[in-house]
Each structure stands twice: as structure tokens, then as C-alpha cells.
Amino acid sequence: MKRFASSELMGPFLALLVITIFVSLTTDRFLDPTNLSNLALQVSVVAIVAIGTTMVILTAGIDLSPGSAIALISLSLALAIKPLGIPVGVAIVAAIVLGALIGAANGLIVAYLKIPSFIATLAALSALKGLALLLTNGVPVFSVSEGLTAVFYNDIAGVPLPLIYIGVCFTVSAVLLNHTQWGRKVYAVGGNPVAARLSGINVEAIQFQVFALAGVFYAVGAVLFAARLNSGSATYGAGMELQAIAAAVIGGTSLAGGRGNVLATLMGALTITIVQNAMNLNGIASTQSIIIGLIILIAVAIDVWRPQISQAIARARAVASRSTKAPGGPDAGP
Amino acid sequence: MARPEHLTLSPGKTPGVFGDKPREQFGEKALNSALEWDLRGLTKQYPAVVANDDVSLQIRSGEIHGLLGENGCGKSTLIGLLSGVIQPTSGTIMRNGERVVFRSPQDARAAGIATVFQEFSLVPYLTVAENLFLGQPLPTNAIGLLDRGALRRNARAALAAIGLERRISVDEKIVSLSVAEQQLVEIAKAVSLGGTTLILDEPTAALGATEIDTLHQLLRRLKKDGRSILYVSHRLDEVVEIVDRATILKDGKVVSTAEETPISVTEIVTRMIGANPSEFFHHESHASDEIVLRVDNLRAPGVHSASFDLRRGEVLGIAGLMGSGRTEILKALFGVEPILGGRVELFGTGYRPSGPAEAIRRKVGFVPENRKTDGLFFNLRAPPNATIAALDKVSRAGGFVSRTIELSAFDRLRDMFKFPAQAHNMSPRGLSGGNQQKLVLARWLFAQSQIILLDEPTQGVDVGAKSSIYDLVRSSTADGRSVILVSSDNEELLALSDRIAIVREGVTVEILEATVLNEHKLTEQITGARHPRAAPPPEKAQ
């Protein structure tokens, strides 16, 4: 618990807690079981997509392509199952491979061709969307298959599948980032690419792998998106890149790279989804984007002012400990 | 050649007196011209050090005045005082007999002082013409738009005024100019901004022999026009060619005034170093006979031909001026820059690293010159900083890093390197400069590097940390590791090295036993006093 309190999870957790309490006090139906389970389903896509975005941001990059990647993958998946008749399981595996390939293409361009990630993935945002439109001339594919919807709506022992996906994806990514050599290298590359190279790390390979792996998470998000709506469309996923970046940033991921925690991103995604949910319930959906924008601004401000804030906290602690410390009394400091 | 009217100097000066007279032993040629700058008893006191202590210096108009001394002698502070960047604790600056006070660089500029620092203030993607008039009102046409024609004409006039119109095109972008040409543009800019006194800080650090000659020609011309120049350089061979008189600083004090300083390399070196060269000289050698690294005619970017052996347990110093190729030798050996030619053998087998990763696998480690930008990860705490080059040593099967193993490994490093008790919870940002440097060094000892390349390991660290870094170097060599040490601090080179390789213009010209050297001889070797300046390198890497 002490470790948690001092870790980077604390801030996002407190933010989430405050917002949850505020929303439950002000919104009647928020705590309804149906609304809560709805919330869990809602958060799954953005949370899983945000894992990929967080990894890219940790290497000091940015990825604007996930929204269009979701459009292309969801539509490809729907087409593979419905007109082509490929079994759902095989089609899903193929969709995830497609996501990895899209991510790998981004990674190739950014890491080896040295195109800044903002530009490279902005190009991908446009190109992938165009590809998706090309596939069916913009016509969505509806009513894909019962098998596909089951992927989203079924449960295991009463636990909805999306919750299980969230659990698996976040466990895997947290272990990868926090407990493996690879994860350590991701943080090193994001923190100081020159020093990383001089420490023997293949900086380009790490950047490439991160983009490719991010593509896998986007594909998982795309599959859930398609399964939830039992359809595929070139319009799906629009704006998802910004929601995912927002989730990462609200979770405390530093856009400068090297700082952040994927579990905090989950809290960021929850925060966004709860705000959206509450505003829908209160019928003020139109101001959603404004509120989300403000939250992002606050989160980034906290990141930018981090040194000053921690100094202020240290000063406050010093004052507090001086005033509470009786002569000869136990030292309450950490 | 006609000199444009607006660029000639105020009346009363005597331009053209000093012409191209043959060089003489003592700097008396300027004696008959007017005293322009009279710095009287300038002192700059910082909380811990006195950077300038009662420094007096006179610059005559139309003279090139050398400001000389070893690293850290207070030259930069004096330049800062004269260019208004730093304000003195006490002392006065007189210009033409009147007291002036510089509260800001603008004040100094208004008084005619133009400083050309080593880091150029040119904008790379603008043209020469645009750079020359940067920050000044630009010529405009009838409807208020920029008049490019007039701008280019003005720029050409400014270049012509100092005889550079044929060397440099006003339409060229700065990025496409060589360093030497950029230097010339920088000087042209300083002059066109109305600079009558130029301060040049190490203008030749990055220049080859022919480029230095061009610079000297320009300076002689400026001098002829009556401008005075304060000239700072470490390359004494070229200093004695260009300066009229020289003032020498040591430990913040003037040790030789312009009247006392003979313009001769040997005499200058003696005064720069002082009477008792090395007070604390505690050398211990752990060198064995076994050769671990053999470098034969190595060619790499910035290195034309480097040859030396390194023995087990030996500290091989590399001495040379900034830009002489010292650092580049280390970079090539660590795989940061490609080896272009020659042969390197490491532990008896051929060695041509494809990158730092291979160098590390072959047990080579590199402590870069700038620990903040190239060495440390401020987003990670101290333990991951120390283990990053040897993650296998803190991992369980399958590539899983164990924090427990890492922390206990760091505990041992903390004892060995005397890191603060809380270091395992701290980012390197919270550590002192000395501890930061030790942390980078710890990385290579932890990775069990057998050959450690040190680039300026004690730059910007305090005396205590310096001596503990020296102890660590000595204990590493006692353990059978070998060290290649690049340093601008001659005392440090002499204190640590068994042998010292002298590098000039990318060539290892000589390798000497440290015991036969002293600071005087070493400084002479580095600055090329004993040898005429080498011919320009045959071909530069493009």
C-alpha cells in the first residue's frame, strides 16, 4: 500500500475516485447495476486501444492511426466473415495479424525511415481510412454473425467477456512493461534515446516493436468494436486516437516519453468513460467534449508542473513534520 | 581597395600602422597606439569561488590581445564581464579614459563590444544576408515588404568591407557553409553590427591549418582598420602567430601582464602552468605486459590515423586539443562511429563493432563526456541506471527483471561507489554531479567491462568526487581492467595515466611514458609547440 501511495498510480486513482464519487452523488441512475455493466462494456474498447497508445507515448512517440486502423480492421473482419464465410475464430486471428502489420508499417516508417511519428501516423490516419472506404465504397457491413456478437456479449461464470479481455490485456502489458528486460528498454528509449544507444540498446528495434505491438492492441479493440455492433464500417473508430491519447495522458503518461504506467492508463480510460456516461445520463451529451478537453488540459498541466508540484508537496510535508514532531518523539517521515 | 565610409572607424585611431610587419619576439608593436580598454582590478566572487581576482588588463586600439590560461583559469568569467553577461563584484572598466558600466550584453554591445562565442549564434536555415542583419530593422520597399535586393546589397557591402565578398556568397544558407566559413560570417556580423572591439572565444577550435590562415588574414585586416581584438585560444602555436601582446591568467589571477609576456610558446606555457606544476601526484601503476587492445592505423570520422596498444591494467591517456579527434577515437572503439580503416584487435581477435551493443558484448564500456545528455536516464531511478547495460545479470529466466536481485546488486554498488543511502529511491537528477558520473561508471563495472573508455570523467564535478573517481579508476586497473582516458585536464592525465598518446588533427603523433612528462612538456606536446603545424589532412570526410 505504501508503494502504491508513492507510485505514479496514486494521482490518476485519486482523480478517478473523486469523479466517481461526484458522479454517483449527482446522477441518480449511475449506480444502477445495468448502467455499471454498460460502463464496463463501454470502457473496454478505448481502454485496450489506449494500451497501445501508451506504449508508443512511452517511447516518446505518438500514434494518431488507431482510429483509422479500427475502421479498416473492423470492416475487413466483417467482410471476411460475411461474404467470404471464413470461420469467426480464424477471421479474428487474421484481424489481429492485420493490426500487427499496420503497426509494423508505422514502426518501420518511424524507427528506420526516421519520419517523425506525428507525421507518419497522421499519414496512416488518412491512408488507412481511405483504404477502408475503398473496400466497400463506404457501405457498412451489417448483421455479420451470431458467432461474432458472442465474442462480446457472452460471459464466463457471470463475468462479461470484455472485462476478461481488459484483465488479460492489462495484465500482459503491465508485466511486459514493468517486469521484463524489454519493458525496461522501452522506458530507457523513451527517457533518453542517446544514452539508450550507448547502453547497447537497439533503439530502432524497440521503437519498431512497440508500434507493431500497439497495432495488436488496436486490432483487439477493433474486434470488440465490430463484435459489439455486429458490423464493420469505415466510420468506426473515428476519434478513437484522441480518446486513447487522452486516457494515457489523464493516466499520467508523459508526452515527453519514459514516464507513465499502463495501469494508470486504465484509470484514465475509466475516468473518460464515466464522464461520458454521466453526461449521457444527464442529457447533456453535447458538452462532453468540452469537459474531456478540460480534463486533458488539467492532466497535462499536472505533468508539466510536476517538479513545482512535488517541491510544493515536499515543502508542505517539511512544515507539517516540523510542527507535529514533539521533542524526542518518533519521526513520522518516510 | 576602397573601404566603405560607414565602416571606417572614428577619427583619432591610426589604422594601417601595424600592416604585415614581420613577427617579432615581444609584443611591443601596439605600444604607440591609444589605450582603448582599461580593466582595473576586476573581481568576480561566487559563493564558493573567486572566479576573477583583481584582474587588470589593457587593450589598445588596433591590437590583437591574447587572453591565455588553462581550463578553469577564469578566462570565460573575464569574457563574461567584458561582454556584460556577468557583473563584477568589484573593479571598473574604463573605455577611452571614461568609466563604463555594463549591466547587460546590450550595454556592452552599445559600447562597441562584439563577442563571438564558440557556439555560433547563426540561424542555420537562413541565408548569409539574412543572418548578417538578424534582429536589425530590414530594408523595406514602398509597400512595406522586405526589399531583398537591398538586403543582399547591404550584405555584400558588409562582406566587402572586410574583404570576404569573394569567399562567401550572401545567398548561401548557413547550413551549407563549413565551420570556418560560419566563423567568418559570425565575425562579419559582429563587425557590421558596429563592433569595434571583438572578443573571439576559441575561434580556431574546430579549424584546420589553412582555415586558420584565412582567419588570421581577416583578423590582421580588422586590426589594420583599427579594431581591437581580445583573442582566446588554446592553440598556442597559432596564438603566437597572431597576437601582439598577451595576458595570462591562472586560478583567476593575472600571472603575466601584457608587458611581461614574451610571445613564445615555451615562455607562455611556463607562465600558464606556474612554478610548481603538480602538487599532488600519486601515481600507481597496475599495467601488465599483456596487450588487450591493439589499434593500428585506425581511421574513423574525425580520426585520420590512430595507433596504440593498451595493456591489461593500464591507463592510457589521450591528450589533445578540443577537436583534435580525441573523443572520436573513443567513439570509434565503442561502435558509435564507424571504423573506416585500419585494424583493431581486442583480446587477440579482430574487432570492428557494428554498434555499442557489440562493443558491450566484447566487454568495452564508454563513459561519455556529457553525462546528462548522453549518459543518464532521468526517468529511471539509480538502480536501473546502473544495470541497464547488463540486464541479464538482474533477470530470471525468460527475460523477467527482478527488482529484488537489482536492489541487492545496487546495494553492493552503493558501498563500492559511496552513493547516498537513499540513492536506490532517487532519480539521478537528485544526485550530485560527482555521483551522477560515478553512476555511469558503475554501469560499466556492473557490466564487467574490461576496457573502459572515459571521456572527460571529472568535468564539472567537485574535488571530493574527483578524488573518489580517481580511486575508482585505480581500483579498476588493480582488478585487471584497462582504461583509455581522454581529458583536457593535464594534471589529471599525468596523475592517472601510465602512458599518454598525443593526438593532433586526428593523428596520434606520439606516445610517451607519463613518467617522462610534466605539465609543461605535455602542454607543449598538445599545442604543437615542438612541431610546426601539421599540413591539412589530405581529405576530409564529406
Brief rundown of the structure:
Chain A is mostly helical. Chain A contains 15 helices and two strands.
Principal-axes shape call of chain B: globular
* Major beta sheet, strand line-up of chain A: 1-2
CA-to-CA gap between the ends of chain A?
Answer: 13 Å
One letter per element, helices H and strands E, the order of chain A comes to HHHHHHHEEHHHHHHHH
Specify which chain pair forms the largest interface: A-B, 25 and 28 residues
Query: What's the overall geometry of chain A?
Result: globular
What is the CATH homology-level superfamily of the domain at 29-111 and 228-274 in chain B?
A: P-loop containing nucleotide triphosphate hydrolases
Biggest sheet details of chain B: 6 strands, mixed
Q: How many beta-strand runs of chain B?
A: 22
Provide the β-strand percentage band of chain B: 15-25%
Helix content of chain A: over 70%
What does this structure look like?
The complex is a heterodimer of chains A (334) and B (542). Chain A has 334 residues and is mainly α. Chain A has helices at 2-6, 10-26, 33-58, 66-81, 88-112, 117-136, 146-153, 161-179, 181-191, 193-198, 203-229, 240-250, 262-281, 288-304, 306-324, and strands spanning 155-156, 159-160. Chain A has one domain (45-278). Chain A contains 15 helices and two strands. In chain A, a hairpin with a 2-residue loop joins strand 1 (155-156) and strand 2. The two termini of chain A are 13 Å apart. Chain B is of the alpha/beta class and 542 residues long. In chain B, 30% of the residues lie in helices and 23% in strands. Chain B has helices at 75-82, 105-110, 128-132, 148-161, 179-192, 209-224, 236-242, 265-273, 326-333, 356-361, 371-375, 382-387, 403-417, 433-446, 463-478, 490-496, 519-527; strands at 35-45, 50-60, 64-68, 90-95, 98-100, 113-116, 197-201, 228-232, 245-250, 253-256, 291-300, 303-311, 315-319, 341-346, 349-350, 364-367, 395-396, 400-401, 451-455, 482-486, 499-504, 507-513. A six-stranded mixed beta sheet of chain B has the order 6-7-8-3-9-10, sandwiched between helices. In chain B, a hairpin with a 2-residue loop joins strand 11 and strand 12 (303-311). The longest helix of chain B has 16 residues, at 209-224. Residues 1-31, 276-280 and 530-542 of chain B have low confidence and may be disordered. The interface between A and B is medium-sized, with 25 and 28 residues.
